[in-house]
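Ops channel
N.P.: pipeline sanity check, posting one input/output pair.
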């Protein structure tokens, strides 16, 4: 969704917006970092924090984009295409949970080792 909906959709419809661009970039960046960590089978507190931040920024951009849409266009029946955005937000939450879990596991491992 980050690539197909946010970035490619802007090119296809020739309607560019900073919110959609940031949503796509941060969403793709979070997913790529999470996949790299998964395939490398390594743990990194820094990458877990980066996954968490990118996911949260992408989610905030979706909220800003929807607020902008609903505050500008007062047309009955417009739904801002929540059908693709709903699963995208769910995927962002799962990716953010992965980053948070990575960040917390390393924090507890460091505390256990230092005691």
């Amino acid at each position: 969704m980050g690539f197909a909906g946010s970035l490619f959709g802007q090119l296809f419809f020739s309607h560019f917006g900073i919110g959609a661009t940031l949503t796509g970039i941060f969403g793709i960046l979070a997913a790529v970092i999470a996949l790299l960590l998964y395939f490398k089978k390594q743990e990194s507190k820094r990458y877990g924090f980066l996954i968490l931040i990118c996911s949260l920024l992408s989610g905030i951009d979706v909220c800003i984009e929807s607020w902008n849409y609903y505050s500008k266009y007062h047309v009955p029946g417009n739904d801002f295409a929540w059908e693709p955005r709903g699963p995208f937000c769910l995927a962002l939450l799962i990716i953010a949970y992965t980053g948070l879990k990575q960040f917390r596991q390393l924090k507890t491992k460091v505390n256990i080792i230092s005691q």
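N.P.: looks fine end to end. The helical segments are 2-13, 18-40, 45-72, 82-114.
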